[in-house]
Amino acid sequence: MPLKMLFAFIQPKFIAAMVLSGLVTVVVLYLSILDDTHLNTHLTQNTRTRPVKTMFWYKPNITTEMYLLSAYYDDRPTIDPMTRPAIRIIGMAHKDEVDKEKLSCLVTYEGRETPVLQAITPTDIGIGGWRHGKFFREYIFVCGSLRVKDKNATFVSVVDQTYLTQTNWESHEQVRVPVRYPRREETMDFGCCVSLAYWKFDPYRLVEWVELHRLWGVKEINIYGSMVEDTTERVFLYYHQQGILTYTRVPRPITEDGEIMFHIMATPVINDCMYKNMYRYKKIVVTDLDEMIVPRGNLMTYHDMLAAIENETESSHPYRMYNFRNVYYFSELPQNTSQPEYALTLRQNHHLRELTAHGTATKSISDPMACNNLHNHYCLKIPKMLEKTPHSIQVHEKFGLNQHYKKCHFDKYRKAYNLPSCKEALKNYTYDPTMLKFKKKMLASLKKPLKDLQLIKHVS
Ligand SMILES: *[C@@H]1O[C@H](CO)[C@@H](O)[C@H](O)[C@H]1NC(C)=O
Ligand SMILES: *[C@@H]1O[C@H](CO)[C@@H](O)[C@H](O)[C@H]1NC(C)=O
Ligand SMILES: *[C@@H]1O[C@H](CO)[C@@H](O)[C@H](O)[C@H]1NC(C)=O
Ligand SMILES: *[C@@H]1O[C@H](CO)[C@@H](O)[C@H](O)[C@H]1NC(C)=O
Ligand SMILES: *[C@@H]1O[C@H](CO)[C@@H](O)[C@H](O)[C@H]1NC(C)=O
User: Fold this and answer.
1) Among 237, 225, 363, 199, which residue's Cα sits nearest to residue 291?
2) Which ligand sits nearest to residue 172's alpha carbon?
3) From CA 244, how far away is CA 303, in angstroms rounded?
């Protein structure tokens, strides 16, 4: 499908997709398997071995209220030559002011005294939200193509018209964001970028989620956490020490109650993950912690799944991306209580018979060489050069589905999205043994982490 068609198809459902994705309902309750589920205190001390990074937001001293997470140097051969090389600045800002003010960037170069001023193009990466009476939107500010090409950019500042029209603006201190150069070594087939984790998650489900992704061939998982509860964070820290997971703490830029701020932080962290790893991950798996893209039929790994999809797809695009349909495994549906309590995906083997509509709550495996703006559901913006041929494959359900484990949320969004009530929806479900093919391997790999984390005493 050409990009324009894909967009026409997806845009009206954009908000529905956001809401239905489970972004809103990432908080899950604990299973009470054992009373003594206290975690080892030595795990916290171990964090010394591989330090956990905390990313703070930069707040430019300008009229436009803006918070910047990071800036990346982008010289991918696949991006539009008109914007190459570019610096992509990831953050959020007051939308009205971004629309009204003309933004510029000031780039500082190694071995050059004065910074270079050039125009910025703001590009969206999310649907935004209200904070203290202002509508904030998630953006990647594109600064490029860079006018100075023979020197390394070291810092970038964002300034607006109000700032530039002051007398002697050059002498005012700006907030400088360091320009990062993405690593190129240690490449791998699959890396995983997860949108923001906050508050509390079921630790058993986290362990299962990580181990399954590892079985499927994901070599690195990135989790950004904000205000994460202790037990949940210790699971992240445990895997951070193992190396399979990179955990990064991100405090909120604005401290206010409620979840809106976390939602606005979600796509900036996903894009930080993509740009940081764009030369290392051949494909990026994007899912939330309450869902997973599962290879179906006799397919056991992501590698085999993509090979099978390719075998049946006539696409010549060099950087293909894959969109998977969503299916709900609501927790109200019957469970197999003979399966181990710590393996939810084995117990929960009924899902709604009907798959979620095409384009809604879709999850994807994206290609960082072909994506400029990554979203929680799929790549939002593709470089112009790569738009000409179809790049996104709508994956048939026989190859893979996004399995989504949560309580039914239809009642809350019934009117807005024309959904059936939970009572109605939960009547029509089906048995699905897909996860049982992973049972042996999965239970074997769950043992050590569950024991190490003292989540369980004996694993049979
Ligand atoms: C912020 O900018 C204003 C005007 O440009 C300047 O007067 C003020 O000193 C700056 N504040 C800081 C903390 O840099
Ligand atoms: C830019 O930085 C890289 C790595 O730090 C270095 O190898 C390269 O020579 C630098 N280029 C210039 C033009 O300074
Ligand atoms: C490739 O597709 C053909 C038919 O389209 C099928 O017969 C064959 O088994 C497939 N091979 C693989 C490896 O999936
Ligand atoms: C439930 O789990 C048990 C234990 O693994 C298994 O023997 C049984 O076949 C399962 N039942 C169904 C309907 O899957
Ligand atoms: C249940 O879902 C299936 C698959 O979408 C559909 O064909 C069927 O009509 C539904 N049954 C009821 C009773 O809604």
Assistant:
1) 363
2) 1
3) 18
Q: How far apart are CA 226 and CA 242, in angstroms?
A: 21
76-126 pLDDT, tens digit each? 999 988 889 999 999 999 999 999 999 999 999 999 989 999 999 999 999
Fold of 3-43+184-452: Spore Coat Polysaccharide Biosynthesis Protein SpsA; Chain A (3.90.550)
Q: Can you spell out the DSSP letters for 204-270?
A: HHHHHHHHHHHHHT--EEEEEEEEE-HHHHHHHHHHHHHTSEEEEE---SS--SSSHHHHHHHHHHH
CB atoms under 10 Å from CB of 309, counted, come to: 21
What residues pair up with 157 in beta bridges, in sequence order?
106
**What separation in Å is there between the alpha carbon of 208 and the centre of ligand 5?**
31
Distance (angstroms) between ligand 1 centre and the Cα of 293 equals: 48
Residue 29 has a pLDDT of 31
Task: Considering the chain, tell me which residue range(s) the CATH 3.90.550 domain(s) occupy.
Answer: 3-43+184-452
Which amino acid makes up residue 389? T
SS3 84: coil
Contact in structure between 85 and 143 (CB atoms under 8 Å): no
CATH architecture of 57-180: Sandwich (2.60)
Residue whose CA lies nearest to ligand 5 atom number 14: 428
Per the confidence metrics, is the pTM higher than 0.85?
Answer: yes
Q: Where in the chain is the domain with CATH 2.60.40?
A: 57-180
Per the DSSP assignment, residues forming a β-bridge with 70 are 90
Check residue 380 and give its pLDDT.
83
Main-chain dihedrals φ then ψ at residue 276, nearest 5 degrees = -60, -35
* pLDDT of the residue at 185: 93
In tens, the pLDDT along 6-64 reads: 333 333 333 344 333 433 333 333 333 443 334 444 444 444 589 999 999 999 999 99
Q: Return the exposure string of 356-372: e unless at least 16 CB atoms fall within 10 Å of the residue's CB, then b.
A: beebbbbbbbbbbbbbb
Beta bridge partners of 351: 430
Count of alpha carbons within 13 angstroms of residue 80, beta-carbon side: 15
Contact criterion met (CB below 8 Å) for 158 and 255:
no
Mean pLDDT of 119-138: 94
**Ligand 4, from 335, 336, 460: best to mutate by most atoms within 8 Å of Cβ?**
336
Ligand 5 pocket: which of 354, 422, 427 to mutate (most atoms within 8 A of CB): 354
Interval between CA 430 and ligand 4 midpoint (Å): 15
- The residue assigned the tokens 């359900």 is 397
